[in-house]
Amino acid sequence: MPTDCSTSIGQVETRHVVLFDEQNPLRLRSGAQLTRVEVAYETYGTLDADAGNAVFLCHALTGDAHAAGLQDSDDPKTLGWWDNLVGPGKPLDTDKLFVICPNLLGGCRGTTGPSSTNPDTGEAYGLDFPLLQMTDFVAVHRALMRHLGIERLLAAVGGSLGGMQVLQWATEAPEEVGHPLVIAASSRLTAQNIAFSAVARAAIMQDPGFAEGRYLAEGSSPEMGLSIARMMAHITYLSEQAMDEKFGRRFQQAESRGGFGVDFAVESYLAHQGVSFLGRFDALSYLYLTRAMDYFDPFADPKAVERLRAAGTHVLVISFDSDWRFSTAHSRRIVRILTDGRVPVSFREITSPWGHDSFLLELPDYHRTVRAFVEHAGDRIFPHAGRSSLSSGDGNWR
Fold first, then answer.
1. Are the beta carbons of 185 and 159 closer than 8 angstroms?
2. How far is CA 36 from CA 24, 25, 143, 182, in A?
């Protein structure tokens, strides 16, 4: 489902800002601290004089700050990862909204992470980088929001790991997030999800090129392990139906060549995904970000729901019926906990054959749902938006 570049927001620039330094270090939930945190981010649209039209995007595991527009006006391959959702006239309408998307803490696309230089040693942190929790990602997001002069967001939107960040932010500081939108996410990973990430990390760490996390200093790279991790992850992002429709049992060549090389079309696809991933992502970031997902459990805080209820925050939770990585059961758990805690919550399960990747695609029912929720949130900005399309609790939008 390619995006038409002619509807894109146009060429954009990734900006950088240092949000924490030696005089103002970032203190992590673990007790460790970082004395320099630089953040890469992009913005789209214009911030209103009262800063009341800001929407914050939180990206998924291997995403980055480049959510919309083109980094190179002559190269459509540089289109942002959520360009079908963000732009003029799109569900996150940049003619009316000011949309912010940073690369998260621990990432490898311009924001401080384990591959960044440790100011104490002059070398890459490697495994000396402190372990992260979801609240640490949010602490940096909140600092960026303050840097931009915004006290309260109209909405925060995220899919997968991004949805987890939104949920953490909403339960931690609901007064800052007017309308959280949690898409294809989980409030607590199952053993199966933890197991997938454990195997991916093992593939990386057991690669000889990993060099006990010092591969950047030693000039090696765990390329085989990282590509295998990516290949396995891609299997979980697609539904069985999507893989059958896309590949079936077709051979890569006209006829089977036999042996143990790449013979089926699906094998070729996975091999390509593994190799192409090496040029844009770092193995250490993969370790740190997946581990933060494993430990995520915001409702373990007994006051989390109470804070949401007191703030009167209205949450929207979206799942996709063919997503088996973060199935609808994960979303229903969030809805059930919020409903039991008397927090206003709407829920929508979207029909899609594309599995977990559906949250990145241009699906009409999905986009209508996002548009209606954001317009409901910003009825000052969207004067014709009505409230009749919302229902609360474990139901669907009418």
1. yes
2. 9, 7, 13, 30
What six digits make up the tokens of 357? 């990747």
Q: Are 345 and 379 in contact (CB under 8 A)?
A: no
As annotated, the active-site residues are 160, 323, 356
Amino acid occupying residue 355: G
**Residue 166 to residue 181: CA distance in whole angstroms:** 7
Give the C-alpha separation, 145 to 59, whole Å. 16
Closest-CA residue to 124 (of 138, 110, 114, 111): 114
Q: pLDDT tens, 308-349?
A: 999 999 999 999 999 999 999 999 999 999 999 999 999 999
Residue 286's alpha-carbon distances to 67, 108, 142, 227, 281, in angstroms, are 19, 9, 23, 11, 8
Torsion from C-alpha of 59, 62, 68, 73, nearest 10 degrees: 160
- Is residue 220 within 8 A of residue 366, CB to CB? The reply is no
Q: How far apart are CA 62 and CA 87, in angstroms?
A: 22
Return the number of other C-beta atoms located less than 10 Å from residue 294's C-beta: 14
CB atoms inside a 10 Å sphere around CB 202: 13
Find how far residue 72's CA is from the centre of its chain.
23
Query: Based on C-alpha coordinates, what's the Rg of the chain?
Result: 21
Which amino acid makes up residue 383?
A: P
Token pair 């929001």: residue = 145
Measured CA distances, 141 to 37, 39, 50, 271 (Å): 12, 9, 20, 34
**Half-sphere exposure at residue 115, Cβ-oriented, CA atoms within 13 angstroms:** 20
- Cα 305 to chain centroid distance, Å, stands at 23
In which band, very low, low, confident or very high, does the pLDDT at 359 lie, cut at 50, 70 and 90?
Answer: very high
Assess contact for 279 and 108: CB atoms under 8 A.
no
> What are the structural domains of the chain?
5-190+297-377 (3.40.50.1820), 194-291 (1.10.1740.110)
The distance from CA 179 to its chain's CA centroid, rounded to whole angstroms, is 17
Chain segment 301-315, per-residue pLDDT in tens? 999 999 999 999 999
